[in-house]
Design a protein that fits this description.
Structural class: alpha/beta
CATH architecture of the largest domain: 3-Layer(aba) Sandwich
Number of domains: 2
Radius of gyration: 18 Å
Helix content: 40-55%
Number of helices: 13
């Protein structure tokens, strides 16, 4: 069978030279923002990583090839296309066999990053346990990937539309360290606090790196969640956000929206209800996470 994995020359050279590399997902491009905001966000995230001295490795499936380090023309193509699949771990073999494109989720991006030796990944927010999961069993594949794959994920916590408490319980059950970067509160994506505390607070990229190294030295499997709260000046009002989310959840149920379509539906409803303020908040937290991830990669 033809090759189904590729690494860009820049990323391969950086890994060989032990230079800092930060993985970036591509569902932010294909499903996270409308065009051209998605292209602007992707390019700015790469620029921020470089500014901090790290090599960005945006990951996606290009014509069936799981590619670590998308070329600029592929990033632009992903941004402007409307029919690119959302690719989690389960979808990778199907896309590879068919030669199709795919924007990689947190789970698929972690898998690819670990495969080539990238230890740090920056994203917006991780998936988690959905509200009502006690009836639907709807739990993101991101959590299972964190349980098995040794990559540190720098994020603004879990998306506020999820059940944050159950998400943290799940991470505890599967043994994933959750670190709060200069915070005692677990952030909820658009807001710096969710009402739940983090198990461990850390104060610097060097301290985060020491935890990651210690976990590997102990032989513990799985990843690490680094929760980096959104800055207050970019955050949304948590009370208003919860009101919008509750209404959107009711609308999703009434319209029969299920599975992987729920989160995009909810985020679109929040975007509309906040007159686009959520989009700007999303962009800013992504850039902040990339900056911190680059510093952790350098410390490692």
């Amino acid at each position: 069978m033809r090759s189904v994995f590729a690494v860009s020359r820049e990323v391969a050279s950086a890994l060989e030279a032990r230079r800092p590399v930060v993985a970036l997902e591509s569902t932010i491009i294909t499903h996270g923002f409308p065009y051209p905001a998605n292209l602007e966000c992707a390019l700015e995230a790469e620029r921020v990583a470089r500014e901090e001295g790290a090599v960005p490795a945006t990951i996606g499936v290009v014509k069936g090839v799981l590619t670590v380090g998308l070329a600029a023309h592929d990033i632009e193509r992903f941004a402007s296309a409307r029919d690119i699949a959302k690719a989690s771990r389960r979808d990778l073999p199907v896309l590879a066999a068919r030669g199709d494109d795919g924007g990689t989720t947190v789970a698929a991006t972690m898998f690819a990053a670990a495969h080539v030796g990238i230890r740090v990944f920056a994203t917006g927010g991780i998936g988690g346990v959905h509200r009502g999961a006690e009836h639907t069993f709807d739990v993101s594949a991101d959590l299972e990937e964190l349980a098995r794959t040794d990559v540190a994920v720098v994020c603004a916590g879990a998306k506020s539309v999820l059940d944050i408490g159950l998400t943290l319980e799940y991470l505890e059950t599967v043994g994933v360290p959750v670190l709060g970067y200069r915070t005692d509160d677990f952030p909820a994506f658009y807001t710096p606090t969710s009402g739940f505390s983090v198990p461990h607070r850390v104060e610097s990229p060097a301290e985060i790196a020491r935890v990651i190294d210690a976990k590997r030295a102990l032989g513990l499997a799985g990843g690490t969640v680094v929760a980096n709260p959104i800055e207050g000046r970019h955050a949304l009002d948590p009370v208003e956000l919860e009101r919008i989310t509750a209404g959107a959840l009711a609308a999703a149920e009434a319209e029969g929206v299920t599975g992987k379509d729920v989160t995009p539906f909810l985020l679109a409803a929040i975007h509309e209800a906040t007159d686009g303020a959520s989009e700007e908040a999303n962009r800013q937290l992504v850039y902040a996470n990339v900056r911190l991830a680059a510093r952790v990669a350098a410390a490692l």
